[in-house]
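agent: user wants the full assembly modeled, not chains individually. Plan: 1) parse entity lines 2) check alphabet per entity 3) run joint structure prediction 4) return tokens. Steps 1-2 passed, two entities, 560 residues total. Proceeding.
--- entities ---
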Amino acid sequence: MTRSTKTIGLNEAATRAAAALNERPEICLGGLFKQSRPVALVRALLATGSDGLHVYSSPGAGYDVDLMIAAGAIDEVFVPGVTLENRLCPNFRMAVESQQVKAHALDALTIVGGLMASAHGVPFQPIAALKGSDVLKHNPLITPFDCPLTGQPLYAVPPIRPRVTLLHAQEADRWGNIRHLSTMVYADQLMARASDMVIVSVDRLVDDDVVLDDPRSVTIPAHYVDAVVEVPYGAHPTASFPNYAMDEKHIDAYADLGDAARRGDGAGLAAYLEQHVTSAPDQPQYLRNIGETRLSELQAEARAL
Amino acid sequence: MSMDFSPLEQMAVVMARDLADGELGAAGAAALVPMAAIALAREMHAPNLTIGGEMFFNPVAGHLYPSMLDDRALGRCEASETFIELFGHSHHGLDFFFHSGLQIDRYGNINLHHVGGTLHAPKMRGPGAANLSYCHTSTRFYICPTVHNVRNFVDTVDFITIPGNMSGPDSKAAAGLVNEGPRLVVTPRAVMDFDPETLRIRLKSVHCGNSVQDVLDNTGFTPDVPENTGRTPPPTADELAVLRGKIDPSGALRA
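--- prediction returned ---
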């Protein structure tokens, strides 16, 4: 017997994720806002026609969740903050306002606490630091209770167990040991420990020795990882430091198309989805569409820091 | 009246002066002005102020970005953390934090969820917010929207995302909000604080280029205007030199 590698292709990863999500639609996305988001995996999943999803994330998401909504893949959003930061998410906003998508009122501690309960194998996580917000009246995941030791009023959040978690990191070995080289690791490690199936895209695969020479730099051990996919620029148009910066122009242009769709002119957004999602499921074609010049600029910006 | 500084620079300077040496705090989302304020405080009078609580410690000043949760901004920092540590910081609280919103009401409550309609049938859906804890576990927070008009300063918010003073001292206590909560509301037009008896917003000072009437005309409720309401002390030459030389050389606060 020889040890099995965990490297698979992008389309196989999407097929596996879609099959699992047909059993239970809870998907979780790594990264934070416009950083280290598993966008290539999301595009490939959307190309399978996966839909009816309940999306979780680290407490802040933007472009990828909005894109999934534009593609009609999401029924319910369990992400506390959905924003492009410099502007609102157009498709998120339009879909919630027209009641096609339900966006729950949540907070970071509920999501992080639920992932902690799942990762730690306990039936709930107590949360003490939630007071005064109307979110508490609407948050579907929390139950008030009194602390059995002090009588203090607390909230209990049950385990959040995503059926599939998609992550992006900079490097991995063929066995699925993941190395984040970015400054922050967000909630990626927690999600990996909390989920049924974990698929990670990386900008590049590295030799076994890279991991063995520096085991403390492994952020997610292969034990928690089901599959790893080498996808150059797999986070584009979000950032993957230190390899490439976020493509703010691309995201802004996308948001302009989304805002036009919100005002009744959906042609541009439909063309965007056709070009980048439906008809470009493989990464080489996607990158050709983005263009070598632009990718070099993003790489240069990240390297210059 | 001509100004040799921008409204956002004025905002950063006002908040920087209120941060103390040795404190721990973070900038929050939409962090351009808050991060400038923190960096300026560290350069001017608070070298032992620690930036922490949002998964990174003490990023090196040098360039401002619209979001400071960006590796371009954090690539040079002293240490990083994850959401697990953020869970702990959220319970332990910081010394200070910053918030903005779609709507801010006369008690300093902030709405980031929806304007009009209901949560699940909103007329306009906002982004929501990730961290709802720092506003009340921290010693205090600052409200610092980059616009000030009758649409974002309203009598009563449609949804309380971030609690300020609720509807006054009794409701604030009943909600279990035991810390100071919002200390200052710093906008491109003015500085406002809170009447200690009613916990309602009142005018404190008006920035260069604005009159009291301008502020009232652009506020969707009528704040108290105490007799001692004055001009906001403008940035000093030293503050501006540090801000432009070390913190914001690309002029993001002047854009």
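agent: reporting back. Residues 248-262 of chain A form the longest helix (15 residues). The longest strand of chain A covers residues 164-172.
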